[in-house]
Amino acid sequence: MKNTPPVITRIAPSPTGAFHFGTARTALYNYLFAKKHGGTFMVRFEDTDSERSDRSYESDILQSLSWLNISPDVITRQSERRSVYRGHINRLLASGHAYESREPSKKDPSQEVVVIRYKNTERNVSFKDTVRGTITIDVSDLGDFVIARSIDDPLYNLAVAVDDCVMGITHVLRGDDHITNTPRQILLMQALGYQPPSYTHIPLIHGEGGGKLSKRKGALSVLDFKRRGYVSGAVCNALFLLGWSPVDEQEVFPLEDMVQAFSLDRIQKKEALFREKKLAWFNRQYVQALPEAAIRREVMPALLRRFPFRSLLNPRVLSSIVQGVREQGTLFADVRDRIQSGDYDFFFIPPVYEPPLLIPDGEDQKQVRQSLTRVQELLATRSGYRGWDAVSTHELLLPYAEKEGKSLVFWPLRTALSGREKSPSPFDIMEVIGKKQTMARIQTALNLLRE
Ligand code: GLU
């Protein structure tokens, strides 16, 4: 039996910008494929262009991967491998597959430079692509392409071809915008006597407005999604299904399930369409499944910033907000913004609002006053704190609300307590602020209605 080498995959990001959503998908697929086959997943920074590369982008890329739980087994930099490329360029020069060419500089045509060109004698290059089948490209019009600006300055195709072979990369999974580079890389590999890896070119992700998702079109770096409050599992899950289709209807895939399920043959042949709405849907699924403590960690700092002492004194405020986030699958950043802009201040201080807010559509002031007075009487029958939880007060008021109309009874009560058009239910608020505050706020509302 032939021994198959262990699977080794890689991504080769250039650290010249924040880690893009599309590259994250490529990383995920490479990671999943390697893990599924017990192999190795590498990150190889393409940082030979020292003018454009920046270490801060390397750290952005690594932080993004770590946030997504995609952990590389090996991290390397091309800038540290110059001697390897030099050795290979020398081999190509010695074997006559490459030659030095003295020519006017592109930057400054009055200057002469010596570049290294590959001596191209081929006509067609064919390779098997997992997604598209056999691809044949006429390479005769590529001419003798440049592979290095000098012996110490290899260009992309040379460095990639050398690294993929020397590092034993078995499977190259990358965006299909690289299809046109593949023949050049194969030519170089063959000239060096190496066997090319297997290629899978993944159709790119397109945005809703059409066209491929580019860095320029808005915030599409991975850490932007983090900053905007998405849960990493949801982002990973959405990426997974942007270009790969499951055998059945399953949509929610924890990372372990993705490893199990992933296969190259189900990579879609069409471009994937990124829709933020779908990502928000995944986010809801993941937030709803999060333990309460995890949501608390996201919300608490904002609450403490807004009300340093009171937040600590009344832990029920946090619980109530956390419960709301969980039920609605709200983005963490949105809750934090709401806390910051005062949307939850009513938990701590009596609200200030305009009296018409108390009156629901289609009702008049007198009816509202009557209903709120009756609610006040009913609530007054509860002595002390017993029966003051949200379930009990709801039970207490429900028969009256069903008789008079829920909106006539609950809307004025809720707005009297929160001063907001949107807020948690009046029962939740009453439980958190307690009976004394509740009664005081109802009285304030009644006074406003009397004026
Ligand atoms: N720097 C290239 C990219 O990020 C790498 C291409 C490759 O995987 O060979 O698109």
Question: Low-confidence runs (pLDDT<50, min 5 residues)?
Answer: none
| Basic shape | elongated
The helix tally amounts to 17
User: How far is the first residue's CA from the last residue's CA?
Assistant: 93 Å
What is the H/E string? Answer: EHEHEHEEEEEEHEHEEHHHEHHHHHHHHH
Percent of residues in β-strands: 5-15%
Widest sheet: strand ordering: 4-5-8-9
Q: Strand count, sense and closure of the main sheet?
A: 4 strands, antiparallel
Helix content: 40-55%
What's the number of extended β-strand segments? Answer: 13
Bound molecules: glutamic acid
Average predicted local confidence, pLDDT: 93
Q: For the CA atoms, what is the radius of gyration?
A: 31 Å
- Structural category is alpha/beta
Can you give a write-up of this model?
By secondary structure, this protein is an alpha/beta fold. The chain is built from 17 helices and 13 strands. Helix 15 packs across helix 17. The longest helix is centred in the C-terminal third of the chain and has 25 residues, at 426-450. The termini are far apart.
